[in-house]
Predict the 3D structure of the following.
Amino acid sequence: MYGNTLARIDSSRWHRLGRVVLGIAFMPCMACMLPVTSVTAAGSFPPSETIFPSTTRAWLSISNPKGLQESFDRTDYGQLLKDQNMKAFVESFRAQMRTSGKQRLGKLGLTLEDLEKIPGGELAVAAIEPEPGTLATVLLVDTTGHEPETRALLETVTKRLLEQKATKAAADRTAPSITVFVLPQDATTQAAQPRRVVFAVVGSVLVVGDHPATVAQIVSTLPQGRKDSLATLPAFAAVKLRCENQLPAHASPVRWFVDPLAYAKVYQAANPPREKRKGPDYVAIIARQGFDAVLGAGGVVLFDDGVHQARHHTLVYAPPLPGREPFASDRFDLAARILEFPNAKSITPLAWVPRGVSSWVAMQWDIQAAFASAESLVDDIVGEKGVFDDVIASLKEDPDGPQIDVEKDLVACLGKQVTLISDFTTPIGTDSERLVIAIETTDPERVAATVAKSMSTDPDMQKIDIAGHVVWELIDRTMAIPTLEVETPGGAVAHADGESDTHVRRNKRRDRDEKLLPHSAVTVANGHLLIASHRDFLERVLAPSGSDESLASAADSTRVAAELQRFFPSTSALRSFARAEESVRPAYEMLKQGAMPKSKSVVGQLLNGILGDGKEGSVRSQKIDGSTLPEFDLIRRYFGTFGLGMESVSEGWYMAGIALSRSQQEPEIARQTPSPVGR
């Protein structure tokens, strides 16, 4: 039978790369949480983007730490942290962060508490590639007005390093202001060189890093900046132009930039795995398949702009290749052509989206173009040319298979809008979260016939009726997703380095406790192919309802849509809406119960993959102790609504996201979620 044919993934490599991406994503959040109380003064150095070199792969800057902290404190999020009900957890979390900070910032001899005391102006951090395969970290701080605290900090750092048996290197005559400590070689790592901590104080500037030559170079460019700086990169300039123009004059934002593929490559080279892993190298595959067309991503994050609790502006910089036209289907090469997100004049919740859901996302995507561009990617992942075509042919011609023409009978009948809606059931447990994926169809009858033909050959699916619609439901836990989803071309063949026996792999999947969609149900209704994580949520979607019961008519949804319209007045390729209270609560309760690693939600399993140890079948330990969190009802008033929009632009994709306070949303909507599925 045609079970889950998705190619086997080297999970250890994915979770390692995931940590990098997750770290970059949360850097602005971490920075804005620092309780900085310093006074912003005239800069002691030019903007950090003019000091860091063009080989900077990731960068984050807070130009006005005090202003950022004050704006954050005015938001509901700032008030939440000051709520007496949260006191025990905040203190516990800070203690946990101190431990975590020592593990990370400790590599530079610092802690989070240290960074609370010294900024008087810009605080910036960068990941730099001084030579191929080498990753250097540099922290740059304007300490104006805090020079005594800075001197005291360096004495403390020196003491810490000496306690770790570090030795002070001989002074370098060419860089007399640089102090270098060399720590003992760590036998548990694969590092070729011993770890170094380098710092320098030049007037009211503190520079800390782990690469002596890079720190010396930064110090030498402090007075006037450099000609080959980060600011000179076209990607950085495009991000700055597109995003910083959106800022009000009084804003105190967090600014960030990353060259994603270059960062992934150097991180991979600088942090080799302790054990050789089998399977494909996904970073190399992404580069080979044309995704190196994405040259950068960055933007700004700010709090309390007078209307929004928070908002961000982001640009993914991916201009067309030389000689290609913007928005043309061939502007990228190979599999990167799947990144085709056409703009639409209007994207709103469809009438069948229930009013009370936690979140809704709708995206324009050229599925036909994606399918046509998938061949080289699938073959590259599998490690054998022709696999994609072989799988497509077997689905059509194998007498024991469904005998469907995937391209003609399915892909060609799909439209360009994909919708995701989510919710949860109570009481909240590991299997409470619900998801429905809806793909627009241009020929619903043909798609329904294809679904029926495919599902009827699968003994793990049963045919049921819901509100007059034919639904195919997974009746056991053999597969992660329904057969129709499983038949993604190319997934049937393992990589050359992996197992080759499909039945062995399927039996292993059968034995796993956690599945992506263990209670799946699929149908064609309302002009869409609907794939649901659970039957009960699909029943809500399919239940007849009036227009006043649709999300499109909810006051909080229309309020967010109106705000997003200010940033996307003409067209967009994506719109989303989320009720923070409902979106946060499942994870909150799982965290409080200490059960987050056991969550069976898609997000929970993604986090497990990113934060886990990469070993199949293992359950990660929860990183944050949430036992001191208060009952959710005591703090729910701090959670409002979120919205996100995206527009395809000539140089890539522009995004803007907003958060509104609870006072700006409609009265609480009574939940309509049934009890969890028992199976």
